[in-house]
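Why show two proteins at once? Because comparison is the fastest way to build intuition. When a single record is shown, students tend to memorize it. When two are placed side by side, the eye starts asking what differs. So, the first record is below.
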Amino acid sequence: MVDATPIRPRSAATVAEWDYEADVVVAGYGIAGVSASIEAARAGADVLVLERTSGWGGAAALAGGFIYLGGGTPLQKACGFDDSPENMKTFMMAALGPGADEEKITDYCDGSVEHYNWLVDCGVPFKESFWGEPGWEPPFDDGLMYSGGENAAPFNEIATPAPRGHVPQMDGKRTGEKGGGYMLMKPLVETAEKLGVRAEYDMRVQTLVTDDAGRVVGIVAKQYGKEVAVRARRGVVLATGSFAYNDKMIEAHAPRLIGRPGAAIEEHDGRSILMAQALGADLAHMDATEVAFVCDPQLIVRGILVNGRGQRYVPEDTYSGRIGQMTLFHQDNQAFLIIDEASYEEGAAATTATPFLRVQPKWAAETVEELESDMGLPAGALQSTVEVYNKHAAAGSDPLLHKKSEWVKPIGTPVAALDLRGFTLGFTLGGLRTTVNSEVLHVSGEPIPGLFAAGRCTSGVCAGGYASGTSLGDGSFYGRRAGISAAGQA
């Protein structure tokens, strides 16, 4: 639930006393906030971070740790992959639309190699090894993986495939508890602390403070239930995450996610977005959502996914986030995996980071006809789907959806079906409209003086589609810009 404290901006004239002061005040100590604080401090600003929880990290520290980078990073080159900013942009414009922000994506791709080097300079470790198996993330400490369907149809024909999921090296990862994202955040926070960045914890930001000219000059927050006023001499950076856990905002903007938030934390309540909206801030792509498909890719790739009519609708070897979007948005959240016994056993024995997503078959039969009947599908519906698939699979091809030949194999018997109806959850991608310098834009199109934002409270490089790593990627990239911009204010 959103705090009931009034969200309208306060006038600085009504603030009797400032409890805290800094040149740059950053709300949120996740990936965007820490990146902003580092660059603001390096630009000579005194920086104070306000964090709602009792420690740094945010959703980033719990994430798998993918940072979407490319254009020819040293890690890509070390693993034998060629890439260019132009090739990266071609993929991102195709995969992250419709309505993708071309200026932002061009800027992001052009700066990607420098951003990788910045992360390394801040102490983020990357192992020069590539994990090429299907999966949500590398199960070991490998540093590079395909993370957005770059090597699957239709994108492998639009742009030259290159893996861009860069993962910090870490042993003993626990997906959803302490993943590669922790090893991204830890060295960045240590870098910030060495630069003199201060942090105040258990701070719930409430509203923005403006002066007579309409410039943002501070934040009102609550700490241990007491209201505190925090002055920002140069600028405020909002970096408090998405609105995935604000039921009212979800119902208003992204209703397909009602009742299925995931891959976010409960602190993602949209408060920063509302605070900026109260100043007239513009929004973008508030309906955009990432959708995870919670079944192990090692199983999915070895079968065929069908909808509630028994028809295939997506290449099974693509990114699971794309499968999730295609299932929830276009198939009424109806999905079944049809797989034969040998392929199921092979997938169940394969190495994976997510063994807990190995779904058990709900139906099993000696023939497809029998399976179809047991599933309650119209007579002939599933049979015709399997017949067409097997006819071409015998020659190692998939002319319907273009699954790569290495995963194309006729479905034999016995055959089973996994019931994957409703196996989706997700988080929001839309938010405040910002410039490439992370200035928050007013609905008039002009920047709001003194206000900057980055991360999932903004609309970043993703407008509709998604690739794993774009949240940590553009959060850190534009977090840096926010810090530089805020520190540069008079």
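Second record. Ask yourself what differs from the first in the token line.
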Amino acid sequence: MSASANLAMTHLVPLAKDLDENKVTPGVLGFIVFAVMALAVWALMKSMNRHMGKVDFAEPETAPSGTPAQGSAGK
């Protein structure tokens, strides 16, 4: 281990011992972040469903020789 990593570990270990593992919770900030992410996913799914409803899946018909039909000649 490098000297700087060793020095950092010696300073951070006493701070970690002060925390009680049974009292550490995500709290209100964790709930707010989770709720915002859930609302964002819901909005994206709603938008995707709206856009997918506009998609036309019908393929244009082709002439028997493999050339496009008359209606799609200029596209």
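One difference worth noting in the second protein: The CA atoms of residues 46 and 52 lie 10 Å apart.
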